């Protein structure tokens, strides 16, 4: 027993009033092991409570647990520092001095971290949401403290600083949990029966499993173009992730119906007049 006590009291580092013994290392290990076990239990409990409520979006528990993790680890770090006999005010002064020297270099980092905390607390963006950033659409796979991870339709993973999500124009296609309106445009030849065109466009989305009937699809006669009469079919759908597939299916159907009913889709035409000068 005395031998074990000697091992635990053995000082690995000794600088002035500060010393680090084997017992200190063991204490640090016990603290962080206990924190890890505690967080595992908290995570399981929160996920169970949220799933029991029903209607909870995927990733909600993960966001809450992540916030708790940051808080607990910070508190555990302070407890560990205090248990080692280190004056916390000295640590604070050190980081204050370091902050002055690296303020500009770390400004962007702190902005991203604060933005991550805002996202996790406000929950305007959650795991599973579909975002559009710089004309790229991606599914939110993970929200970290500094960055968020999105997976595009092409299977590419994008890592985006959280400050961009907070400060820049970002479209959240799934924020309202409801249908979103999209459109498909088409031009038909001059002289076509416009009422027939309207009927066929509406028929192209009739009974489509991904198109909402409330609100109902609607057709607009948008303009008289240079080479065509311009129509727009607007429809509502909850299918935002694979919307390009849905639009493609609608265009195939429109093309089929137009062919069956002799409705022409014209291509741009230009009349060229050649003036020949006759020598007198």
From TrEMBL:
**What keywords would UniProt list here?**
Cell membrane, Membrane, Transmembrane, Transmembrane helix
What membrane topology does the annotation report for this chain?
Answer: Multi-pass membrane protein
GO cellular component, alphabetical, reads: plasma membrane
Q: Which Gene3D superfamilies match?
A: 1.10.287.1260, 2.30.30.60, 3.30.70.100
Give yes or no: UniProt keyword Membrane: yes
**Which residues does the UniProt record annotate as the domain Mechanosensitive ion channel MscS C-terminal?**
183-265
Q: Any idea where the Mechanosensitive ion channel transmembrane helices 2/3 domain is?
A: 66-107
What molecular function does GO assign, one term? mechanosensitive monoatomic ion channel activity
What subcellular locations does the record give? Cell membrane
Q: Start and end of every Mechanosensitive ion channel MscS domain? A: 109-174
Q: Does the keyword Thylakoid apply?
A: no
- State which residue ranges cross the membrane: 20-39, 67-84, 90-110
Q: Which domain of life is it from?
A: Bacteria
Give the family this protein belongs to, as stated in its UniProt record: Belongs to the MscS (TC 1.A.23) family.
Would you tell me the protein name for this molecule?
Mechanosensitive ion channel
Q: Which organism is it from?
A: Vicingus serpentipes
């Amino acid at each position: 027993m005395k031998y074990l006590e000697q091992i635990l009291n053995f000082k690995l580092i000794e600088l002035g009033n500060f010393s680090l013994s084997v017992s200190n290392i063991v204490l640090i290990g016990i603290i962080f092991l206990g924190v890890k076990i505690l967080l595992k239990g908290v995570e399981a409990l929160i996920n169970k409570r949220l799933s029991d409520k029903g209607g909870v979006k995927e990733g909600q528990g993960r966001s809450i647990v992540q916030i708790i993790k940051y808080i607990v680890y910070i508190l555990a770090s302070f407890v560990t520092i205090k248990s080692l006999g280190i004056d916390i005010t000295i640590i604070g002064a050190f980081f204050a001095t370091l902050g002055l020297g690296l303020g500009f270099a770390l400004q962007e980092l702190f902005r991203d971290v604060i933005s991550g905390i805002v996202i996790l607390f406000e929950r305007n963006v959650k795991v599973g949401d579909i975002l559009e950033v710089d004309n790229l659409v991606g599914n939110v796979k993970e929200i970290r403290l500094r960055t968020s991870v999105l997976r595009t339709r092409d299977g590419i993973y994008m890592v985006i600083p959280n400050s961009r999500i907070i400060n820049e124009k970002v479209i959240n296609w799934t924020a309202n949990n409801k249908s979103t309106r999209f459109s498909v445009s088409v031009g038909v030849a001059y002289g076509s029966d416009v009422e027939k065109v309207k009927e066929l466009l509406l028929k192209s989305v009739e009974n489509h499993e991904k198109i909402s009937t409330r609100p109902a699809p609607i057709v607009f006669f948008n303009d008289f173009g240079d080479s065509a009469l311009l129509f727009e079919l607007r429809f509502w759908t909850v299918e935002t992730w694979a919307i390009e597939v849905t639009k493609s299916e609608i265009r195939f159907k429109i093309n089929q119906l137009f062919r069956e009913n002799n409705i022409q889709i014209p291509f741009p035409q230009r009349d060229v007049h050649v003036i020949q000068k006759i020598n007198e």
